[in-house]
Amino acid sequence: MIPSQLQPLANHLWQSTLFAAVAGLLTLALRKNRAQTRYWLWLAASVKFLIPFSILVDAGSHFGRHIPAAIPDSRLSFVIEQVGQPFAVSVPFATMQAAHPRASWIPAIFFVVWAAGCVTLVCSWWLRWRRIRAALRTASPLHLPIDIEVMTSPAFREPGVFGIRRPILLLPAGITSHLTPPQLEAILAHELCHVRRHDNLATGIHMGVEAVFWFHPLVWWLGARLMDERERA
User: Which end of the chain is more exposed for a tag (fewer CB within 10 A), N or C?
Assistant: First the structure.
């Protein structure tokens, strides 16, 4: 039996999992389309973990008030209504009373485990961010005919874009002398595409999903799919 304190979370998790499964089926149907289309589907599935289904239903009900024509009930509306319903398990009152002392500890234990995992994950990302910031302080500017700042350092092992609001292109030291002009141009075009599409912002959003729902394997699988389709796009 799921404790009443955890029922909203359980409802949200299975609804978000179902949403991700539908997104996965759509990506299979669109496997011959552009990678960017599949990327946005996976990103929508990730963002859904941050938005409870009840909020979407409430927003839809407010939006529906402005529609003059009444829409008759259908099987689809019935399914949507059922998806929004919480778990309802009928348990005898005596059984609930007997299980209450032990069940009252379950939410507290779950919270402690969740908080430990969340803090560990966020700290690991913070340390990684600190290392990049430290490398930036000793990096050298590289003047290239592009619209964003470029920094180079031996600490950068591969090209990448750092930052969201003011992105900086990071390049390994000596990369210009090891590549031909067409090769360098291809790398710059690739990284500038990430900047134009605000991929770092989308990555930051999914990292928030991973921090909150780190215990859900599907969240990490979504991250891998996002990375694959992002690079294909």
Answer: N
